[in-house]
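Sample 1 of the test manifest.
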Amino acid sequence: MDQLLGMAFDVFRAAGNGIESIAQAGDRGIIAHTIDYISRRSDLILELMLEHLWLVVLTLIIAVTISVTVGIIISYYESFAQTVLGICQVLMVIPSMAMLAFMVPLFGIGFTTGVVALVLYSLLPVVRNTYTGIRELDPAIVEAAKGMGMTERRILFKIKIPLARPVIMAGVRTAAVMMIGIAAIAAYVGAGGLGELIFSGISRGHQPMIIAGAIGVSIIAIAFDYLFYYGEKRFSVEGSTREGN
Amino acid sequence: MIKLEGLTKVFKGHNIPAVKDLNLEVNEGDVCVLVGPSGCGKTTTMKMINRLYEPTGGKIYIRDEDVLQMDPIKLRLDIGYVIQEIGLFPHMTIYENIATVPNEKQWPKDQVKEKVDNVMSLVGLDPEIFKNRYPSALSGGQRQRVGVARAMVSDPPIMLMDEPFGAVDPITRARLQNEFLRIQERVDKTIVFVTHDIDEAIKMSDTIAVMREGELVQHATPSDLLSAPADEFVSNLVGRNRSIKRLHLIRVSEILEEVDRAPALKEDTKEEEVKKRLDESDIRTVIVVDRDNKLKGVIGVNDLKRKTGEVAGDYFQEVSDTVTDDATLNDALSVMLEIGEGYVAVVNEDEKYQGTITLGDLLNVVREDS
């Protein structure tokens, strides 16, 4: 936790340094202004952070459920795999603004649109990692399991998924961090979150607002990354190293 | 016990069958070794028995039951399966690995525990030490033992073994082979064993099935195979030095019964007696054991000159290597060559001295045969 706080301070300092250079053009007291703004509107910022977090967590749950399922399915049907991965790849390279714009005619403006767009974005890392995690297991392990009389279902749940878990989790981690950034843009279509602060700051020319929003997003991203990092360490016991033979 | 009739396998996209019209019968309690160069179809044949591969044609019977009509999962649960790569599950402890089949069969917990403990002791792994370890913490030889234990835990009547000792160094391999033969003597499974190593085949088998390009060339006992190879291919496979290969067929214990050598000396034997015995010995060496008949060492002529003392216990020097009584004469020969002596001491499982085998004994065996 100390480390986390330390990181947060680092971010503040870094943000502060950057801002100072921006501010040199005119108003010298921008840092003071920002701090002042954050302390004054801390309830609003906190609320937006929670909203942002909710958007990310909900999307993550939906996306991981879909992606892991798809990843497992295509690991059994090799002929599908490249097509599905190709589609996911295409989805990910669509610029986020464009993706959100595509979603509006389909889902209108609001939270749902944001969730759908974010889900589509985060498919690739998890689908790909699930697929490769399972495909790259030592074939001898799977053959031994099958030869001993385990059913395909048991092999999947007792052998394949537990062994591929570190790779799958790495995909989830990538997806989560990416999603936190894109979620800020989703405010554009009314999905809420810290993006609102940034966008209204831009339109109003209110710099402390933009900075406060950016700092909030960074904190969430870094916190998530750390959470996954420690989670992975926690779960990977001695034996979970991928290769035993 | 296992009967293959006209068994044929053609893989998708191949014109030449991997296994062609194979007929083979394995009797209950026998070890049948499938041997041949790589690509001869031996592994394919084995994998059809537990239906990892579905035959293209032909029949497989186990105890007169048509295997192809059985549920493959049920079939496999009753057939032990060991592969060269072992395929231990790296995320499970040794206990969990070995308990795989009993858990699939949903045995009660305490019964699983008892069985796992038993089978671990059987293959020479102390359950208390190894149970909770992960495969990554084990040596190659230990993993092979776990692989064998995992296949044997539910006491299946049949075992399929695909080069089970292929991935370990030659010394560990010989030890594992001997241990396995000792276990097999006790459990008496029907085993189909695949190897490309003819020496291993001769050593492990009751019958050998030689395969080439998907066809069975000869199915015979090792001794028949050595004395009457069916064609040039088989005689090339067994090689020229057939008399040396015969050494694989005979166990040290069988020779010990035949040779009549003076017993070992106790540690407290007087010097004059040691001298007398050294003079009588054909290898100019005497063996020294302790009160429990455990091997202490040997005394050579030079040892008596070099050291001073009163009893045998003052003179002996330790031996660098021994063989167990279930080892083959070939193992004994390699140990002799390794330690550079014309004899080797034989001990049993508990390190008790059983006798001595000399190079002369081996020569007699080879001479008798040829």
